[in-house]
């Protein structure tokens, strides 16, 4: 039986909420800038986290920042200030998204540049040189031997730039040829924001116990230890949303760029020279494996890393373990937590169960409370079964041939349309009304000409919901809107990603339409079957 098998362990957004005390007022900022030595600055850091989140700061605070650049302070103190000021992005929304100000580091050792986006909504970009070090710092000491072929999460998309001028969110940077940049989606940025002081150690353990009780205690301990030991490397500056950004901040672009801090300076401050050297050596070994590659990872599929070095796949897998182990409490609706517990009890936490089998009251555990349509009474069989309609067979074969032949478009002949119009479906009552599946073409810049790309299949709802979003009509309209609306702007920045969207509609749809949009081919095929080959 060909069926869409979905991983049932959801990957939630990584967001530990900021506390009000994390914001610095003008007096606190002046106190830091007036610190006379490094010890004082470090003590101050322990008290207020040195997060320059100037949400309610007065104009004098910004004047202090500007005047500090010419102040006669110790080099180490200046580097500490630079560290917290240069790696800037915007204040997080309740969903952990970022708006108004984007930052990019161009090339190895390049300087960050801040730009106010015209849409007031942008994503942050980091070059691979920086991200590779951050990832390895976060996960150091937990290296797992052997090849890793599957991951669970939706952390990021790697992209390769083979031209020197590439616009990102309105920021054009001078980069080296074949430079690898990372488009850091929400979970990656959130991971880089995680620091031990968001929660006390006891609170962090309690949080993990409540949200992921099935995670092994040793694994939780290792996770907490990794976060605590490496929090100094992954702290960021937070800025307010565009409507609150004073002109003084926007005028500081050049000054901020000139305060670029190298990772070696941070390591010197915290006496991490030995670790830094080993990380640089490791990064130099691994970084070439990313060149020329585009990779998307999603919770609902397994991905084989045939074109990636084992070490690269292993690092990614361990990163996603961190991302999936720390979730967002408010994103986990109580009824879904209970539903997940029932699933784990019945099938185990890593089982892959066809959707219709899961929703079946006998074979599975039935539908969640928010499932808006009755659960199917019978398990729908393979499309080859004679009980399926002629229309199913026509559309299924059309879709399958398009996928197997790696086509971006499908030609509907008059004969095909006539056959669809005349077909009659007698089995629609046992099938969900719709399911959106996204098929991404994964490959390097030459993939279009040499056919060297592969398919990545994922549920379209997964980006927004990430929590059982793989089920058709799982959320009611309000819940679905709350999850998906903040992600709509992401599509504006997908110009380098080749994506095919296959939309499965109910049997009541009487036509099959093909439409083209910029960089995206929408195949709106009225396919009323969930049977699908599993692309890995």
Q: Let me know the average pLDDT.
A: 38
Task: Round the Cα radius of gyration to an integer and report it.
Answer: 25 Å
The main sheet orders its strands as 14-13-15-17-16
- What helical percentage do the residues reach? 25-40%
The oligomeric state is single chain
Query: What's the main sheet like?
Result: 5 strands, mixed
Number of domain units: 2
General shape: globular
Residue runs with pLDDT of under 50 for 5 or more positions = 1-200, 226-309, 312-333, 371-388, 424-476, 482-536
Q: How many angstroms separate the termini?
A: 17 Å
- Total beta strands: 17
Strand percentage lies at 5-15%
Pfam family, one: Lant_dehydr_N
InterPro entries: Lant_deHydtase_N
Protein name: Putative lantibiotic biosynthesis protein
Domain Lantibiotic dehydratase N-terminal: 50-527
Keywords for this entry:
single chain, 536 residues, alpha+beta, 2 domains, five-stranded mixed β-sheet, four-stranded antiparallel β-sheet, 14% strand, disordered N terminus, Putative lantibiotic biosynthesis protein
């Amino acid at each position: 039986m060909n069926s869409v098998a979905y991983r049932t362990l959801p990957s939630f957004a990584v967001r530990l909420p900021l506390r009000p005390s994390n914001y610095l007022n003008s007096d606190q900022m002046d106190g830091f800038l007036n610190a006379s030595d490094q010890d004082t600055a470090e003590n101050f850091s322990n008290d207020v986290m040195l997060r320059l989140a100037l949400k309610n700061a007065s104009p004098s605070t910004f004047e202090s920042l500007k005047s500090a650049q010419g102040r006669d302070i110790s080099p180490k103190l200046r580097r500490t200030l630079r560290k917290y000021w240069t790696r800037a992005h915007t204040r997080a929304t309740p969903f952990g998204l970022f708006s108004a100000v984007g930052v990019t580091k161009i090339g190895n050792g390049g300087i960050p540049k801040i730009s106010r986006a015209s849409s007031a909504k942008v994503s942050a970009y980091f070059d691979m040189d920086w991200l590779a070090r951050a990832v390895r710092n976060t996960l150091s000491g937990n290296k797992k031997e052997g090849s890793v072929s599957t991951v669970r999460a939706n952390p990021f998309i790697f992209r390769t730039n083979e031209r020197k001028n590439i616009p990102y969110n309105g920021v054009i940077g001078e980069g080296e040829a074949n430079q690898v940049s990372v488009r850091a989606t929400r979970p990656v940025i959130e991971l880089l924001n995680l620091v031990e002081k968001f929660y006390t150690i006891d609170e962090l353990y309690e949080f993990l116990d409540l949200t992921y009780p099935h995670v092994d205690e040793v694994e939780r301990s290792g996770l907490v230890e990794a976060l605590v030991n490496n929090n100094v490397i992954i702290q960021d500056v937070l800025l307010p949303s565009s409507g609150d950004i004073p002109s003084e901040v926007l005028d500081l672009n050049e000054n901020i760029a000139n305060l670029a801090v190298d990772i070696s300076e941070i390591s010197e401050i915290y006496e991490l020279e030995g670790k830094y050297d080993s990380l640089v050596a490791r990064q130099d070994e691994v970084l070439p494996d990313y060149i020329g590659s585009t990779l998307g990872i999603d919770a609902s599929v397994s991905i084989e890393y045939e074109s990636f070095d084992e070490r690269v796949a292993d690092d990614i897998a361990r990163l996603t373990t961190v991302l999936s182990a720390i979730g967002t409490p408010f994103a986990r609706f109580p009824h879904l937590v209970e539903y997940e517990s029932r699933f784990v009890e019945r099938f185990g936490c890593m089982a892959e169960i066809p959707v219709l089998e899961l929703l079946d009251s006998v074979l599975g555990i039935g539908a969640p409370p928010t499932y808006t349509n009755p659960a199917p009474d019978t398990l729908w069989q393979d499309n080859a079964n004679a009980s399926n309609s002629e229309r199913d067979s026509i559309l299924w074969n059309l879709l399958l041939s398009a996928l197997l032949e790696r086509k971006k478009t499908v030609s509907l002949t008059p004969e095909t349309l006539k056959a669809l119009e005349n077909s009659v479906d007698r089995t629609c009552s046992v099938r969900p009304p719709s399911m959106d599946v996204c098929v991404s073409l994964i490959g390097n810049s030459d993939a279009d000409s040499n056919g060297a790309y592969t398919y990545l299949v994922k549920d379209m709802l997964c980006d927004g919901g990430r929590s059982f979003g793989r089920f058709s009509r799982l959320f009611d309209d309000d819940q679905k809107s709350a999850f998906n609306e903040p992600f709509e702007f992401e599509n504006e920045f997908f110009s380098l990603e080749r994506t095919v969207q296959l939309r499965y509609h109910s049997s009541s749809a009487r036509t099959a339409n093909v439409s083209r949009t910029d960089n995206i081919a929408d195949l709106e095929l009225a396919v009323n079957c969930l049977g699908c080959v599993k692309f890995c």
